[in-house]
């Protein structure tokens, strides 16, 4: 075998040189090297542990492994063999970290350093980093007896394997279903750009007409726009029954229940009443009771909206003489109920937001508000020709890399997500290590006439994931652990991305970046405002569904688990019917497609609503001082973003706003009763 690029210096990443056989061989070698180095560090530090030779030496081992394994994650798009190898590498990496964090001798060394006279003189940042490390050891079972540690390791190994199974089942169910349409009348009402995309999918399969898939964009377009009620029903039933016992493929229900069982046993082994209680040890929220109250308050505040929306939908039912409104009618008639007479259609609006123009606007926003320059790079390598590479500079210094994989293609998921590849930090020798982040979206490819164009939902997703990437790249702490924004927990991580989304709800900002792909004209602010008012009204259903999923997530992982004799679907129905304006259909299986339960947000889905409360309140300062005000942007950067995990979102918000967070802006924006 030729030299393995994963074992060489990775800056900059040499994607063009990475071959399939490099993946497991490279990660195996790094893990072996780390085990050997870890043993040497423990032996050398037994007498007098020090910051440089204990903490920073182990941070360097973690950085080498994490940098390599996160770097190869995007390679899953190259095919099944690459995905299998990447999954194997990821599981091996998780097992290494679990074993390291269960090392009682290592925990004792960290604790001795923290308790030492030398440790008492450490800076606030070092003390916080040490305490977070010690907490990670304890939450991983380092203080348990040998038998309990072995059982916990077995549990964690099983838990690590289940999410991949859940997500693979969901991907299989999504990809296995298609609907071939040859009669154009069935697609009446659906935007031309969506039907064009469906036609391209049919052509790729050698078919005439249109091909509907279970990706989010075509399903949403049909359910909101198609006048053919039977088509809406077909698509709705297929989309909302994915990966369930009603589907032809594997059922995610048993996978989810097994995950819940394993997590509950893990929590009890560590001394917690529930997995939700364990999960909140690394989040901003203080207790399960606090989160339960938060969700219940939102349920109470939304009761009046729910009643009004139900009445509105029933009125449409009577007017249309449907003989009973069905779930596949809800989005269709809700959109008509809130239609603004002056608003452009979604298709007309999309023409003003070509991807290239939006990417330019995003990078300019980052420069204006946060003083960071994001410039295209012609030298960086990526994992696919579609990926755009950028160098990120701040204060004239290169601080990191940004990758944008925004266009749909075969083998790539159709949802938006981001990858925190490298942490910015300084090592024991004083060398600066750059940050790196990647965002993934599913914008429809241009058709040769029109370039890739973004719907308002596409815009929000792109800005959301860009927010995650900026957060990763703009952390200024030099400490490796504190520069890892995952240490903030999901409710801390989601704040900045939810905040970046708020610019997509600003008519002033969107009008300023609008640029029609044919004429180059911009939209008047009044036209954008009318469109946003209409979209905002339709956000009620999105909010209600987010609230339902957050309630379900907390319920599944809460203290009721041991006594939960009711089936999964019964629990789903109870939580959803409590907050949705219309009951679930008896065929709907939202839990089986609830991918956040298998992707790190279990017992944390409430974070989206929690962080949105903070984001809307924070954005109110920008609205008062100017949505492009550099001083406000710098204040946000210094108070909340730059400290990384060295300052909680709650504490940073208080610095930025001069007070505690208020739920009123969130409630008022959603039209809920304060």
Q: If you had to describe this structure to a student in words, what would you say it looks like?
A:
The chain has about 675 residues and is an alpha+beta fold. Among the domains are: about 5-145, Glutathione S-transferase Yfyf (Class Pi), Chain A, domain 2; about 175-240, no CATH class. Helices cover about 55% and strands about 5% of the residues. It has helices spanning about 20-45, 50-70, 80-100, 105-115, 115-120, 125-140, 145-175, 190-205, 215-225, 230-240, 250-270, 275-280, 290-300, 305-320, 325-335, 345-350, 355-370, 455-475, 490-500, 505-515, 525-555, 570-575, 605-625, 630-640, 650-655, 665-670, and strands at about 180, 210-215, 370-375, 390-395, 395-405, 415-420, 425, 430-435, 435-445. The strands form three sheets. Strands 3-4-5-9-6 form a five-stranded mixed β-sheet. A two-stranded antiparallel sheet has the order 1-2. It has a two-stranded antiparallel sheet with strand order 7-8. A hairpin with a 2-residue loop joins strand 4 (about 390-395) and strand 5. The longest helix is centred in the C-terminal third of the chain and has 32 residues, at about 525-555. It is globular and about 80 Å long. The chain starts with about 20 loop residues before the first helix and ends in a 5-residue tail after the last helix. The mean pLDDT is about 95. This is Peptidase M3. Pfam families: Peptidase_M3. Belongs to the peptidase M3 family. Keywords: Hydrolase, Metal-binding, Metalloprotease, Protease, Zinc. Its cofactor is Zn(2+).
């Amino acid at each position: 075998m030729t030299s393995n690029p994963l074992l060489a210096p990775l800056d900059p990443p040499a994607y063009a040189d990475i071959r399939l056989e490099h993946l497991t061989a490279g990660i195996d070698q790094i893990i072996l090297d780390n085990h050997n180095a870890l043993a040497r560090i423990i032996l050398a530090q037994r007498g007098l542990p020090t910051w440089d030779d204990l903490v920073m030496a182990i941070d360097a081992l973690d950085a080498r492994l994490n940098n390599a394994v996160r770097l190869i994650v995007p390679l899953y798009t190259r095919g099944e063999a690459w995905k299998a190898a990447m999954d194997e590498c990821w599981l091996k990496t998780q097992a290494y970290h679990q074993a390291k964090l269960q090392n009682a001798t290592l925990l004792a060394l960290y604790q001795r350093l923290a308790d030492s006279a030398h440790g008492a003189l450490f800076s606030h940042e070092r003390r916080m980093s040490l305490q977070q490390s010690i907490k990670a050891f304890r939450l991983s079972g380092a203080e348990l007896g040998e038998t309990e540690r072995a059982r916990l390791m077995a549990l964690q190994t099983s838990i690590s394997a289940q999410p991949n199974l859940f997500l693979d089942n969901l991907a299989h169910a999504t990809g296995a279903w298609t609907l071939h349409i040859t009669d154009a009348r069935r697609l009446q009402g659906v935007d031309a750009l969506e039907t064009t995309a469906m036609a391209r999918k049919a052509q790729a399969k050698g078919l005439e007409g249109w091909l509907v898939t279970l990706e989010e964009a075509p399903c949403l377009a049909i359910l909101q726009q198609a006048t053919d009620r039977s088509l809406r029903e077909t698509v709705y039933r297929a989309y909302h029954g994915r990966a369930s016992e009603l589907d032809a493929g594997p059922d995610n229900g048993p996978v989810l229940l097994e995950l819940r069982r394993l997590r509950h046993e893990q929590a009890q082994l560590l001394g917690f009443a529930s997995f939700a209680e364990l999960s909140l040890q690394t989040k901003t929220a203080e207790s399960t009771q606090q989160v339960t109250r938060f969700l219940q308050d939102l349920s109470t505040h939304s009761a009046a909206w729910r009643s009004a929306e139900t009445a509105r939908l029933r009125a449409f039912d009577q007017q249309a003489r449907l003989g009973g409104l069905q779930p596949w009618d809800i989005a269709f008639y809700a959109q008509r109920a809130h239609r603004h007479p002056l608003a452009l259609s979604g298709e007309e609006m999309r023409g003003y937001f070509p991807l290239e123009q939006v990417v330019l606007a995003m990078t300019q926003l980052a420069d204006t508000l946060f003083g960071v320059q994001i410039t295209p790079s012609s030298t960086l390598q990526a994992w696919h020709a579609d990926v755009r590479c950028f160098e990120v500079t701040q204060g004239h210094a290169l601080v990191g890399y940004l990758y944008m994989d925004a266009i749909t293609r075969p083998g790539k998921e159709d949802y938006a997500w981001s990858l925190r590849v490298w942490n910015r930090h300084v090592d024991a020798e004083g060398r600066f290590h750059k940050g790196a982040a990647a965002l993934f979206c599913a914008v429809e490819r241009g058709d040769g006439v029109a370039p890739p164009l973004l719907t308002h939902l596409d815009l929000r997703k792109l800005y959301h994931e860009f927010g995650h990437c900026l957060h990763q790249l703009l952390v200024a702490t030099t400490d490796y652990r504190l520069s890892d924004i995952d240490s903030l927990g999901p409710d801390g991580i989601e704040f900045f991305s939810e905040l970046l989304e708020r610019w997509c709800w600003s008519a002033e900002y969107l009008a300023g970046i609008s640029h029609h792909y044919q004429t180059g004209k911009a939209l008047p602010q009044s036209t954008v405002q009318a469109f946003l008012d209409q979209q905002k009204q339709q956000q009620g259903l999105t909010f209600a569904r987010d609230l339902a999923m957050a309630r379900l997530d907390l319920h599944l992982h809460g203290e009721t688990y041991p006594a939960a004799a009711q089936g999964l679907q019964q629990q789903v129905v109870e939580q959803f019917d409590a907050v949705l304006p219309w009951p679930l259909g008896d065929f709907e299986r939202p839990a089986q497609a609830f991918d956040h339960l298998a992707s790190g947000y279990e017992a944390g889905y409430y974070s989206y609503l929690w962080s949105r409360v903070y984001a809307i309140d924070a954005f109110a300062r920008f609205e008062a001082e100017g949505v492009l005000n550099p001083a406000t942007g710098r204040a946000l950067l210094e108070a909340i973003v730059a400290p990384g995990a060295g300052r909680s979102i709650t504490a940073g918000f208080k610095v930025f706003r001069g007070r505690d967070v208020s739920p009123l802006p969130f409630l008022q924006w959603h039209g809920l009763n304060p």
